[in-house]
Amino acid sequence: MNKLYIGNLSPAATADDLKQLFGERKLPLAGQVLLKSGYAFVDYPDQNWAIRAIETLSGKVELHGKVMEVDYSVPKKLRSRKIQIRNIPPHLQWEVLDGLLAQYGMVENVEQVNTDTETAVVNVTYATKEEAKVAIEKLSDHQFENYSFKLSYIPDEEVSSPPPPQRSRRGGHSSRERGSSPGGSSQPKQLEFPLRMLVPTQFVGAIIGKEGLTIKNLTKQTQSKVDIHRKENAGAAEKPITIHATPEGCSEACRMILEIMQKEADETKLAEEIPLKILAHNSLVGRLIGKEGRNLKKIEQDTGTKITISPLQDLTIYNPERTITVKGSTEACCSAEVEIMKKLREAYESDVVAINQQANLIPGLNLSALGIFSSGLSVFPSTPGAQGSATATPYHPFALPEQEVVNLFIPTQAVGAIIGKKGQHIKQLARFAGASIKIAPAEGPDASERMVIITGPPEAQFKAQGRIFGKLKEENFFNPKEEVKLEAHIKVPSFAAGRVIGKGGKTVNELQNLTSAEVIVPRDQTPDENEEVIVKIIGHFFASQTAQRKIREIVQQVKQQEQK
């Protein structure tokens, strides 16, 4: 329940007055109005309705001659680390918002709230309540391109009502849906990966049908759940549709929607051929494209379609997804959909595995709080309307974080983007990650790469490196059709190098197979003054991270044995 406080009420205001006022503005109340002298409380079961009530009424509506104030009801003793920021420009880049938030403290989590408002809304969790308080004071009514930020405290479940043991949090799947038994064992279940489509707004009515009959028939036949986000992006020429089903159910629903739109277009002569438009989270698109565009070319050749992908520049705070446009006959588009979704699903499942590995390798690592991807606040593709369904693990800072040094090599021409104007970007990045980040001087006038020296504990390494990988992708320093792969160097004690290599190269080969990264331990190295040698790791972000953690693990084991 989202309890709202209504302040600055006239003594003449009654509960019926408030009910009528809310009703007239299509803001139906979930329960009774609790009226006090000069203020009142109302409940909303849904955060979106609560946001809509605040946006519609606060400071804008008079009752008996007094302008009402509406905000979340959070008692002072429960004001914690969680705040909500509303009225954010929809085109604001994540990076700019991150920089703003980081000025007031360590941000643990940022979650976008899917609302019907044209501006963006995010919930932010700071490391301490003092930092959250400063952010509220400094950012309230902060002006950005004629938009004035609106901030509120929001209830912090950990403070107000800790979840009882043995129960899953609200918003996730129930244990029955997950296939787990009371004893805790679970059957392997295929990860749900919904199909997201964009359809022209003029065809939405035909897809729903008279009294909703067409959409009901579609969901029944395909055994799917279909969400048409009609209120998203008011006035837009296209609307998103999310289809939850098995891969076969998604494909069948896609086919039926394309056929409905084509029939409607033929009858109204609005368009000759309707393209299929699939939405995909930016973090998955590189692997759909494949090296030098091979995957995409093969799908085009096999299905007889023409496929284009929207540019990275179109990504904003309100749009972490790329649009994949498929042109061809309905039959050809349907065949392409199967292949495209297969690749995206594989990439998604691979990320889930990699993320789980990272969570196991770094105890207490709060992956969904890292915000390392510039195109979205979460590692996972988000599904509108499924707020809170991927609950973050509690944040546990390292008790004794061990300082690690990683040298990451970036293209020379990317140095300016990493440093930013007057050094702002690298300062924000260091503050965000909790790491020291320095760029070494160029080795010569024609050096094609520069070394970035990152010093910090494992979690800081993960955050800093992730942001650098994301920045290079976003700024187009790599071909849009290829995955960002960088070379990282870590140092290990010379006495442990043999264990990293393994007998006959067995360990290093296993490492490469496990992580998909290239791992090189140059054999003829002279140890440095600290008796350490370099291990080179080349790969995309998750591959590199997993390899780094595994190598550190091996070194730790060797050190423990040496001490014994």
Word description of this protein:
It is found in: Cytoplasm; Nucleus. One of its GO terms (molecular function) is RNA binding. Pfam families: KH_1, RRM_1. Residues 2-75, 81-156 form the RRM domain. The chain is α+β, with helices and mostly antiparallel strands and 564 residues long. It folds into 4 domains: 3-72, 2-Layer Sandwich (Alpha-Beta Plaits), CATH 3.30.70.330; 82-153, RRM (RNA recognition motif) domain (Alpha-Beta Plaits); 195-349, TATA-Binding Protein, CATH 3.30.310; 404-563, TATA-Binding Protein (2-Layer Sandwich). Helices cover 37% and strands 22% of the residues. The strands form 6 sheets. It has a 6-stranded antiparallel β-sheet with strand order 14-15-13-16-18-17. A 6-stranded antiparallel β-sheet has the order 20-21-19-22-24-23. The chain has a 4-stranded antiparallel β-sheet with strand order 2-3-1-6, with helices on one face. α10 packs across α12 and α16 (494-501) crosses α18. The longest helix has 32 residues, at 330-361. It starts with a strand and ends with a helix.
